[in-house]
# Entry
Amino acid sequence: DRLGNRMRLTPPAIKVAAEELDLTVIQPEKVRSAEVVAQIRETAPDLIVVVAYGQIIPPSILEIPAQGVLNVHGSLLPRHRGAAPIAHAILAGDQQTGVTIMAMDELLDHGPIVSLRAVEIGPDEDAFQLGNRLAPLGAELLVETIANLSAIKPRQQDHRAATLAPKLVRTDGELSWTASAMDIDRRVRAFQPWPGVTIPWAGGRIKILRGAPESGVGQPGSVIHRDREGLVVATGSGAYRLNEVQVPGKRPMNASGLIASA
# Structure
């Protein structure tokens, strides 16, 4: 369960659907506890599926289902193993990503690949938009994979090609104008909706909600063009167009309304 807008615990959609189907729902604080392992063992599942679960599944659970444990992961493994694969695909400038269904083992996103499906990353696409495309794709692929599981021969990952996609932290989005326009653009798109990107402006920091890299030269942080669409600001390499920004304590606004230079 999570805190809603009124600071009340609200159940996730999957719990609501499970209860409507009269399915048992358990939400353990620690999945590796002996009590939880015993509960799962008692149900004798043929297959377990893990999707965006924030805890490590212990060997005591991995060994229970006869057909193993499948994990739905938001990247083309072995690229971007870890908690934030969608953001890191954008950060890396990847042109392609996708969904991988893997057979879980004891290591992080390390097990054999059962199935995968690739998609192109749009040049202006942010992590929120990309995640919304990958979610139904992953659900569809999962259903297809389970239906054909007995006929699929999993293949080992190329562990030499593995990259990591660690959990994001708030400071990841604290940038300066000395960064390149490309880096700023990738981070603005990768860090939607969280942690977002902030950058110095008029003695404080503003949040960039929307923008794009442009050509231009100047002292990093200086405004080199202003129009109805926003401002073009020089960076450490190239320039970056600010279209929509948010000043602390204010609503989102068109960047053309900023009246002071960085």
